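4.2 Preliminary Data

To establish feasibility before requesting continued support, the project team ran the inverse folding procedure on a target of 246 residues. The structure was first converted into the token representation described in Section 3, and no sequence information of any kind was made available to the design step. The complete token record follows.
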């Protein structure tokens, strides 16, 4: 087992504690409102939740009437997702690499949703080719991932404002290991790539970019945590792409 997968295999219980059934603050107040807006009415839609983790988003989508496949490369995540998923929902959780989706038929899906995952995928180019294959002619990818221009581990908040200190060239692709944070006990591994690289591989796989968004917090967070809301207006922490097949 490689270190990327091992890192996530060790996190299932801690990750469920992080996102629970509704998502953590980053998801609940930043990414998820946009995902729901772009998905629209999902009743009777066939949707892949790529990098589903412990399954909170798969469960929420299926509860709105969609048929969902949740895929993650960590077996412990998949087992936790199966454990917490209600039996009456149309969800299938499968352990697989993101670029090995042979169990999904060609042009059989309406949407692929991937929430804070693309930066963790090593074989991102092969993954995009697979997503193009499994989507139908009107299918779309909605992906949110950490903003590569403004990495949080390089950010400092000072009296003068927010300061970023890059230790490596922004344009150089590299594998990054970050120490555990909050209640987590193992390192986090992701792949830094410039935004232009993502744009190029999306196009190379046959996708068009329908929308590009740098989400800020929803108004709901303004009530729950005013300071966090104000901070979100100063620095983008994530990007969202909506892609369609050409």
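Position-by-position output of the design step:
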């Amino acid at each position: 087992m490689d270190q990327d997968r091992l890192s996530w295999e060790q996190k299932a219980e801690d990750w469920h504690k992080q996102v629970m059934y509704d998502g953590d603050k980053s998801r609940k107040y930043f990414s998820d409102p946009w995902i729901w807006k772009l998905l629209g009415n999902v009743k009777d839609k066939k949707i892949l939740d790529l990098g589903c983790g412990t399954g909170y988003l798969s469960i929420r989508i299926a509860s709105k009437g969609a048929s969902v496949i949740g895929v993650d490369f960590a077996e412990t995540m998949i087992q936790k997702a199966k454990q917490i998923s209600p039996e009456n929902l149309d969800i299938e959780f499968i352990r697989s690499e993101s670029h090995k989706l042979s169990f999904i038929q060609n042009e059989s899906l309406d949407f692929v949703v991937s929430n804070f995952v693309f930066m963790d995928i090593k074989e991102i180019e092969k993954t995009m080719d697979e997503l193009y294959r499994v989507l139908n002619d009107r299918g779309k990818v909605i992906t949110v991932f950490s903003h590569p221009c403004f990495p949080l581990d390089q950010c400092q908040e000072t009296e003068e404002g927010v300061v970023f200190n890059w230790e490596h060239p922004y344009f150089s692709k590299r594998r990054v290991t970050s120490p555990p944070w909050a209640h987590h006990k193992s390192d986090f591994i992701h792949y830094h790539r410039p935004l232009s690289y993502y744009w190029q591989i999306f196009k190379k796989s046959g996708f068009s970019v329908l929308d590009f968004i740098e989400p800020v917090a929803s108004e709901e967070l303004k009530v729950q945590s005013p300071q966090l809301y104000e901070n979100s207006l100063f620095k983008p922490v994530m990007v969202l792409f909506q892609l369609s097949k050409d």
